[in-house]
Amino acid sequence: MAQQIPKVLVTEPIPEKNLAYLREHSIVKVGNKGEFQDELKLIDAIPDYDALLCMLSTPVTKKVLVAAQKLKIVANFAVGYNNIDVESAKDLGIKVANTPDVLTEACGDFAMGLLMAVSRKFNAAEQYLREGNFSGWEPLGFLGMELRGKTLGIIGMGRIGQAFAQRARAFGMNIAYHNRSKVSPETEKSLGAAYVSTIEELVINSDVLSLNCPLTDQTHHLVDKTLFKLMPSHSILINISRGPVVDEVALADALHRKTIAGAGIDVFENEPAVHPDLLTAPNCILLPHIASATFETREAIGMLASNAIVSVLKGESDSNIPNLI
Ligand code: DGY
């Protein structure tokens, strides 16, 4: 009997090179932007597919996984995988992959750029110029916080946290961090990073607070009203991790009442919705989840996810697939 060609569902358009590679090994269906953010639509489609290449916005819930009849692997086009019910996948014998490493540098660059943009008020100053208000250089216009000598406090010292720390070091910042476990003494030394045992102590002593931790039950609303009260009034929050790590209402309140000086936010609690009070908040740069958005990185993400799928479809052993969770 002829062998059936496996079918892969890619929930949104991804780089053509990734699709071409998948097509060498399978029949590929590519969804439209946003199409499979609808759980019911995914439940309806999934029984047909042997593999799913999904986005961080695709709800790969238990219901979806149970509905799948021949699904062997879910490969997320992202390093964060809070959109996937990994436990249920494991129970059902479905493998799950993410895309570590390949987006670390792009995200490190982005975090540094975002911090620079907030601390030096790029957006407000540009808007001022575009609105025709620039009437000459002024000594007191758009003064911001200099980064040299300031402390960057990082919550979540994984790959991306370390990449940010490395860049901030080059800008003369001191690095402090809190993490589930300390990083190695060599890493601490190379980053000049000091471990702080409580989040509260880290927050109180940081001029910039950066969130680089995954979204879990433990980190949901980690930065809430209480923590905002501990942040110094000149401090800046940078979040490129996941929106729900921050209580958005508390963030908007802190910005409006100026109990913190600014924020750079790439991720939101209910993407793609943005809390209306954030949209009107002062000195706050809001971006549409683009930390990893470079041509090179997005192609590398797609390649890593596609490789995991092809390996699983070929029946290769798990030890050949480094990005399985
Ligand atoms: C990821 O891959 O999890 C990031 O959110 C991309 O920016």
Your description of this structure?
By secondary structure, the protein is of the alpha/beta class. The protein has two domains: 7-100 and 295-320, NAD(P)-binding Rossmann-like Domain (Rossmann fold, 3-Layer(aba) Sandwich); 104-286, Rossmann fold (3-Layer(aba) Sandwich). It has 13 helices and twelve strands. It has helices spanning 16-25, 39-45, 62-67, 86-91, 104-119, 122-130, 159-170, 185-191, 199-204, 225-230, 248-256, 276-279, 295-313; strands spanning 7-10, 27-30, 51-54, 73-76, 95-97, 151-155, 174-178, 193-195, 208-211, 236-239, 262-265, 284-286. Strand 7 (174-178), helix 8 (185-191) and strand 8 form a beta-alpha-beta unit. The model has no long low-confidence stretch (mean pLDDT 98). The chain binds (2R)-2,3-dihydroxypropanoic acid.
